[in-house]
C-alpha cells in the first residue's frame, strides 16, 4: 500500500516535532559544557536559528517550489505559538528574533550551501558561540558532538523525502 504524501501543514507539524526546544543548563552539562541560565537562553536562540537554516535547506531540496514558503511559514507559526512555553524565550521579541534568524540563515548559507556544508556550518556556529562567550574554546569539540544530536539533518531530509 502506498502512503499518501503529507500536506504542507502535516509536514510542518512533523518538522516542528524534530526541532530542539530550550537548551538547558543541564543538557549542556551532559555534554561537558558549563553555561549559565542566561547563556542557555542565548544558546537556545542561536541553535534554533541554526536549525531553521537546515530546515529551510531541506524544504528547498525536497519540496516543490509552490509549497516551500507556506511550509516554512507554518513551522515559524508553530514556534511562535510555543515561544514562551517550550523555548523559554519570552524575553526576546518574536519580531526581533525573526530579523536575527534571517541574518543567521544568510550567514550559514555562505558555507552550508556547498558540499561538506554541514561540517563547515557547524564550525561557523561554533565560532559564533565562542565569539559571544557562550562556549569556551575547549568546548568546541563537545559542541560539534552536540549539534548533530540537536539538529538531525538526516531526519529532516528523510521526513521531507516522504512528502513528495
Written account of the structure:
The model has no long low-confidence stretch (mean pLDDT 89). This protein starts with 7 loop residues before the first helix and ends with a helix. It has one domain (9-15, 35-161). The protein has helices at residues 8-18, 25-30, 37-62, 65-81, 94-112, 117-131, 140-150, 153-161. The radius of gyration is 16 Å and the shape is globular. The chain is mostly helical and 164 residues long.
Task: Please tag this protein with its features.
164 residues; single chain; 8 helices; 0% strand; mainly alpha
Topology pattern, helix = H, strand = E: HHHHHHHH
* Number of spatially distinct domains: 1
* Strand percent estimate: under 5%
Tally of individual helices: 8
The backbone outline, from C-alpha atoms, is globular
Unreliable spans: none
User: Residue-averaged pLDDT, rounded?
Assistant: 89
Structural class: mainly alpha
Task: Give the terminus-to-terminus CA distance.
Answer: 16 Å
The profile of the biggest β sheet is: none
How much is the radius of gyration in Å? 16 Å
Oligomer: single chain
How many distinct beta strands? 0
**Helicity level:** 55-70%
Amino acid at each position: 500500500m502506498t502512503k499518501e504524501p503529507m500536506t504542507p501543514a502535516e509536514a510542518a507539524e512533523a518538522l516542528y516535532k524534530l526541532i530542539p526546544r530550550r537548551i538547558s543548563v543541564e543538557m549542556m552539562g551532559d555534554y561537558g559544557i558549563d553555561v549559565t541560565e542566561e547563556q542557555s537562553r542565548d544558546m537556545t536562540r542561536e541553535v534554533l536559528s541554526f536549525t531553521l537554516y537546515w530546515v529551510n535547506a531541506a524544504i528547498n531540496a525536497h519540496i516543490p517550489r509552490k509549497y516551500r514558503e507556506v511550509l516554512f511559514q507554518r513551522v515559524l507559526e508553530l514556534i511562535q505559538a510555543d515561544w514562551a512555553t517550550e523555548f523559554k524565550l519570552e524575553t526576546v521579541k518574536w519580531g526581533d528574533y525573526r530579523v536575527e534568524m534571517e541574518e543567521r540563515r544568510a550567514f550559514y548559507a555562505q558555507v552550508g550551501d556547498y558540499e561538506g556544508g554541514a561540517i563547515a556550518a557547524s564550525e561557523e556556529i561554533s565560532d559564533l558561540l565562542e565569539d559571544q562567550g557562550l562556549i569556551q574554546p575547549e568546548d568546541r569539540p563537545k559542541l560539534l558532538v552536540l549539534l548533530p544530536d540537536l539538529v538531525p539533518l538526516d531526519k529532516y531530509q528523510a521526513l521531507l523525502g516522504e512528502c513528495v
